[in-house]
Amino acid sequence: MPTVEFEGHVFNVDEDGFIDDFKNWNEAWVRYVKQQEGIEELTDEHWKVIKVLQDYYKKNGIAPMVRILSKVTGYSLKKIYELFPSGPGKGACKMAGLPKPTGCV
């Protein structure tokens, strides 16, 4: 399994760069993905999306559908793409430490 080293942390990742286990998520991982995504600054809006994704995952074992993410956060799909340029699956779920969502390309 490939690894990523960042800020003194070593993360096991899958072939698409998603962290191997949600339990290994920490804020260093967030900073790493932020850098990879080209996001300059994380705002409260970013953190709201991250926390909603994580809470849903903890309860259901999967990432929410985009429609649910949009409804719970109150953000339009356009807004979510502004926050996470590579999208809710590839960018937001990766940053939140979730596995790659099914159907995500």
Which tags fit this structure?
105 residues, two-stranded antiparallel sheet, Arc Repressor Mutant, subunit A, mainly alpha, single chain, globular
Strand arrangement within the widest β-sheet reads 1-2
CATH class: Mainly Alpha
What is the quaternary state of this protein? single chain
Rounded to the nearest angstrom, the distance between the terminal CA atoms is: 20 Å
How many domains, as an integer?
Answer: 1
Please describe the topology of this protein.
Blueprint: E1 3-6, E2 9-12, H1 27-37, H2 44-60, H3 66-73, H4 77-83, H5 87-96
Antiparallel strand pairs: 1-2
Helix pairs in contact: 1-5, 2-5
Characterization of this structure:
This protein has a two-stranded antiparallel ribbon. 50% of the residues lie in helices and 8% in strands. α1 runs antiparallel to α5 (87-96) and α2 (44-60) packs across α5. It is built from five helices and two strands, in the order ββααααα. The longest helix is centred in the middle third of the chain and has 17 residues, at 44-60. It has helices at 27-37, 44-60, 66-73, 77-83, 87-96, and strands at 3-6, 9-12. It has one domain: Orthogonal Bundle (Arc Repressor Mutant, subunit A). The chain is mainly alpha-helical and 105 residues long.
Question: What is this structure, in a nutshell?
Answer:
By secondary structure, the chain is mainly alpha-helical.
